[in-house]
Amino acid sequence: MAKTLKTSGDYIVKAGAGSSGSHTIRLDASTVRIPGNLTVDGTQTTINSTTLTLEDQFMEVNRNNSTAGSEDSGIFFNQGSSNNQLLYYDADQSEFVIGATTHAATVSAITNITPGTLRLANPTQSDHAATKAYVDSVGGAVLTGSTNNQVTTVTGANAITGEANLTFDGTTLAVTGNITATTSIANDAVSIIDNVVTATRSNDDLVLKASGNGNIVVNDTLTFSAMATDPTATAQTILYNKTAGGGGTGLYFRNSNIGSGAVGELISKSKATALAIALG
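The structure corresponding to this sequence follows.
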């Protein structure tokens, strides 16, 4: 038979010394239902049920914190004899962290954390986090096999084509093999775009320099674009092209140490033969 206990004021059930004592009040029933709010003012709440079900849309932790960005807070996952796993907000760094910790859930600040891994699906829009496999498939080169600052294998989409040895000593990147570039290769002085090599600094010379007693070798035709005016004479011989003059070649040279820097034209075979005949 149901029984109702009713009072016009507060109703207190106290066992022994109450909250300062050691006695327990046990409610033994299939279901205990509290129609009103439940407030627990103790220091620890333990739930021994197998499944915890919440109707609330959101769960708040660290409720009494009143200072912005001042306290770490999160969820501990008990792993028995192994280190606890933890998902928490790091207030000092203003970031979320997952990982393993030697702390217990009674700690007030996280000072020991070994970052863990997070498994994700491949992203489907720009603000999704990306998996390593996805980044490897659409990103740049994957460099592997590094020994003594050498990378022995280069793979990946939109990357260096083929395998090569790359050596990087902190200052210079050296490549043994071929580099295929579909756009450009550039540093602070030279740009290589398709088949065009350009000095990128204003009014800078583009220098081709052989080593030791070697020579600059041209294995095909060498073409000179027409100059509108004669270049300024320097101590180095300048070879250039403009409208042909008396020499019949249109190929001119100038050197400040030759003829006081006067412009000279290389003479063609036919012009030289005609001149030789004319001079007898």
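The first helix runs from residue 132 to 138.
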